[in-house]
Fold this protein.
Amino acid sequence: MTVVDRGTAHWQKLDADHHWHPFTNTKALNQKGARVIVRGEGVYLWDSEGNRILDGMAGLWCVNLGYGRTELAEAAAAQFATLPFYNTFFQTTHTPAVELAHLIASVTPGDLNHVFFASSGSEAVDTALRMARAYWVVAGKPSKTWVIGRKNAYHGSTLAGASLSGMSGMWKYGAPLVPDIAHIAQPYWYGEADAAETDPEAFGLARARLLEAKILELGAENVAAFIGEPIQGAGGVIVPPASYWPEIERICRKYDVLLIADEVICGFGRTGSWFGSQTFGITPDIMTMAKGLSSGYLPISAVAVGNRVADELINGGGEFTHGFTYSGHPVSAAVAKRTIEILRDEKIIERVHDDIGPYFQERLRTLEDHPLVGKVDGVGLIAGIALVASKSPKRFFEKGDEVGLICRDHCFAEGLVMRAVGSRMVCAPPLIISRDEVDELVRLARRCFDLTL
Ligand code: PLP
């Protein structure tokens, strides 16, 4: 009995009766019924009614190799048959975890030579936060506890992830839930610069220097780390001016504050380099990664740690009392290893950098002549499209969320997955997308903007 044999209504009813969806107004969804996705191939998905959908979001920023890569299924099957599970606690290891840690160390920048595994991006962020605080305890500066993040950042749904996130929705039930967390404003020039701030680079510097002001306010002796996504993804694809990250790094070094790059979305080729940190020219002390690590085929995340922090914690700290049953899960690790090999051997990231990324960005920018589109931002295969009520003078929609959702729903009905973040439409297709598929994506997007007008 296939999904299709039972009929869409059967699955929608069961879904409504029993399945509580994450980040969803489940009551509203249950009234209309969730779309049942049954299959994927390349950049396309198919639903239970046989409709084809171009996945402009690579699942949830993760299916970088596209759907249907049999090599990943084979890697999983072989590992399932050999050793489906063993933990890496208590004096044991296994080859998939070792090989993956070695591969990650070889593609990360600087001396991020030590890799700690978890299952989700949120767990990786929690791990990074605990590592940063543990580091300062062991280094003899236990007052350094504060971690500074940014407004409109997203770092996950666990207690630490939600607290470090700077979105009001994440604090709906009281927050931040973890103590000693502060936020500074984001580097969103198009959306937040005032009329006098006409130079994006000057704006980028000014926003970076808010970190210095916050460190001085809290006292450098109390600040453990700064955390940021190279490009804020879930916040609407906020691409910082080029001046921003080098200044953030300079400030972190000046005040001896650890720099944590949350690469959960930007990692593994999304911006045209292995990591967003490389695209923006910085070398973090700690890096979190997930999603593209296994192309989303199985849950796995990692925290790559530089020699300074790792040496202190590993050699001076005794046992690091942290970890998860599934840290370095052998099947997930085998699939992640194969993913990295494919990215490397097929030169997929070079293609994003040299060819398909620039093509995608150029084609998307043709949408800027549309009356609804204020500005397209992006690099590599990640982009955000600001929908505006008026371009000149620039005026944002009063109910931007509603416009975004209307546009998103038109896209979905027309056969394109794009997400709405407020009035920004965001797009991050699989890295293997072809030029023809980019053309189709842009054509569909234009049609949906027309329908939203
Ligand atoms: N960090 C960033 C930058 C993310 O974008 C996300 C998820 O989108 C997370 C952390 C949390 O990852 P997960 O949903 O796997 O817990």
User: Anything to note?
Assistant: The chain has 17 helices and 15 strands. The radius of gyration is 22 Å. The pocket of pyridoxal-5'-phosphate is lined by residues 120-122, 125, 154-156, 161, 229, 233-234, 262, 264-265, 290 (CB under 6 Å). The first strand starts at residue 37 and ends at 41.
